[in-house]
Design a protein that fits this description.
The complex is a heterodimer of chains A (493) and B (79). In chain A, the strands form two sheets. Chain A has a two-stranded antiparallel ribbon. With 493 residues, chain A is mainly alpha-helical. Helix content of chain A is 61%, strand content 3%. The longest helix of chain A has 31 residues. In chain A, a hairpin with a 2-residue loop joins β3 and β4. Chain A is globular. Chain B is 14% helix and 32% strand. Chain B starts with a strand and ends with a strand. The longest helix of chain B has 11 residues. Chain B is of the alpha+beta class and 79 residues long. In chain B, β1 and β2 form a beta hairpin. The chains are: A mainly alpha (493), B alpha+beta (79). At the A-B interface, α16, α18 and β4 of A face β1 and β2 of B.
Chain lengths: 493, 79
């Protein structure tokens, strides 16, 4: 007689044995398994909805890979770029550089839980999660490699995370905090519960919807396929959070959620907000970034908080205010510091400005004059006249330029600690820093390093330091290209 | 004379900017230096300079006299 799945599954998944040669605390040290340290009895009820077996996993993943590779084969390499909007191509380059190797770091995180997670069902799910994350690295690397023949900067799909480019440093700072330097409990809540349950729908499903309208079917298939994996292994977070709440750690859980919500928001407004509304062609935009955030991220997050009777983060009003402005301010930063990026960025054209003003009724009033000024400066003095040459003030927590919320509404603040003054873009970034001073205090931002003489202050040398070979790799205006001066040797004194 | 680095925010600009300057320069000169880095340096009009706490700084005072030191924020309101 063949056993039915439910008759044998728990025997395979729930194999927590009683250690005889070492103590349970030695097998699962608090430093890496996480706080609060609880005996296995407290974790015995750990469960999640998918309950995937390895056999099912292999079959499903094989089908998913075949679907992605089928689209790749059908399009064939010479047609990979056919009919793609130039802005969309830059969006893919931006996405690939920022995401591909972050996924590989995610595999390390899942493997930490696969060893130090406190219940065997958790460890099983995390093992599958690690395989997922390796897949999420390999597919963009494959597609990025295909695209190299058309645009050499697609090598940033692999290269980006090995450089000191400032956007990547900000992303690495977040991911180090979220999972590479986190114990199994903290990373389950920060990575699985907040980041994956809360935010990845935005990066993968919203992008898939836009890719469909931008006729980039390979990208659509890839990111949608990745999101089905994310949705599964994101389920690790819920039972970990539930166990914490049942064992007197409500305050700790609330802190981890608040902290990671804010930090993820910072990264996503910089990465997804700008890409969706300044690189995706208008015809591909199904909704605004704010609408996606509200419907796909915020509402889901509220349901998750309600499920666990947790509070909204204390900075919620500031977050809601920033939804209308922050990524638009950030785009001005990307544009005027574009030579420090590995992708091209655009000044919004007339049709885009109308779209932006329709979605954000105060956009023209807030940002119109600044873009007009940049247009005039280009006409009067060419590309060189539209670049920022001074150093931007970088936040000592999120590592992003302090440009929030909008012109005339500045939220920057400082903190004095052990004789050093730290700058923050906002109160939430300062609050997070203050909660874990020893974790963050020794880190120097790019600007700190320049001021201290540890990184070059001259822009051309800074490009090299960031891994950018000028002018071939450095970002330019998407529509206007490169001024001749960028191709000339830089005069020296 | 000591060189200090400060973080300046102009009300009509979109990003905070790093200013490295001798601390014997005046607050008015400091504001001028920040505005010069922005997108509309040519625009006329009066300016008010404040520290992080919101206190108005005397434009003829030196940076040191105004109490600004390494890593401090100043804000320039342009009208």
């Amino acid at each position: 007689m063949v056993l039915r799945r439910d008759d044998w599954l728990d025997v395979a998944r729930k194999v927590d044995w009683t250690p005889r040669y070492v103590e349970e605390r030695e097998l699962f040290p608090e430093e890496i398994s996480g706080r609060p340290w609880l005996t296995q009895d407290a974790w015995r009820g750990w469960n999640e909805a998918y309950r995937t077996t390895y056999r099912e996993y292999v079959a499903n993943q094989r089908e998913k890979d075949a679907a992605v590779l089928g689209v790749r084969a059908a399009l064939s390499k010479p047609r990979l770029f056919d009919d793609l909007d130039p802005g969309w191509v830059q969006l893919v380059k931006f996405h690939n550089g920022a995401v591909a190797l972050a996924e590989y770091a995610g595999a390390v995180a899942e493997l930490r839980m696969a060893r130090f997670g406190r219940d065997s069902a958790w460890r099983t799910m995390a093992t599958l999660g690690a395989l997922d994350e390796i897949r999420h690295t390999q597919i963009p690397l494959l597609i990025g490699h295909d695209l190299l023949a058309y645009d050499g900067n697609f090598d940033w799909t692999h290269k980006a995370f090995h450089t000191s480019e400032w956007v990547i440093l900000a992303a690495r700072h977040l991911f180090d905090d979220m999972f590479l330097a986190a114990d199994a409990i903290d990373l389950a809540i920060q990575l699985n519960f907040v980041f994956e349950t809360g935010f990845t729908n935005l990066q993968f499903m919203a992008m898939a919807a836009m890719a469909d309208r931008a006729h980039h079917h390979l990208f659509e298939k890839t990111v949608a396929s990745i999101q089905t994996d994310e949705a599964r292994h994101a389920q690790i977070g819920h039972p970990v959070l539930r166990t914490l709440l049942e064992n007197g750690s409500r305050e700790r859980a609330q802190y981890l959620i608040d902290k990671m919500w804010w930090r993820c928001w910072r990264l996503f407004l910089a990465l997804s907000g700008t890409a969706m509304e300044y690189l995706a062609p208008v015809s591909a935009r199904t909704r605004s970034f704010k609408e996606f955030m509200t419907e796909w991220v915020t509402e889901q997050f509220m349901k998750n908080l309600a499920e666990f009777d947790l509070e909204k983060p204390w900075f919620w009003d500031l977050f809601a205010e920033e939804l209308d402005y922050a990524h638009h301010s950030f785009q001005l930063g990307l544009y005027t510091y574009r030579t420090t990026l590995w992708f091209d960025v655009a000044m919004p054209d007339r049709a885009e400005r109308e779209w932006l003003n329709q979605k954000y009724p105060r956009w023209e009033e807030t940002y119109g004059a600044l873009w007009d000024q940049l247009e005039r400066r280009w006409e009067a003095g060419g590309e060189a006249n539209t670049l920022s040459y001074g150093l931007p003030a970088l936040c000592n927590l999120c590592q992003l330029p302090a440009l929030f919320i909008r012109p005339g509404r500045n939220t920057a603040c400082t903190l004095e600690l052990d004789g050093r003054r730290y700058l923050f873009c906002s109160e939430p970034c300062r609050w997070i820093f203050e909660q874990e001073k020893s974790r963050f205090a020794d880190h120097n931002s790019v600007v700190d390093r320049i001021v201290a003489g540890e990184a070059p202050g001259k822009l051309t040398d800074l490009h090299k330091w960031m891994g950018l070979e000028a002018p071939v790799e450095t970002g330019r205006d998407l529509r206007r290209g490169l001024d001749p001066w960028r191709l000339d040797p830089v005069p020296t004194a | 004379m000591m060189r200090v680095y400060l973080f300046g925010f102009a009300s009509d600009d979109f990003v905070g900017r790093v200013i490295v300057t001798p601390d014997e320069r005046t607050v008015a000169q400091l504001a001028g230096q920040l505005v010069a880095w922005g997108l509309a340096p040519e625009r006329d009009g009066s300016v008010t300079v404040r520290n992080e706490a919101g206190d108005i700084l005397d434009p003829v005072a030196t940076i040191a006299q105004a109490g600004l030191g390494n890593g401090d924020i100043f804000k320039v309101e342009r009208r």
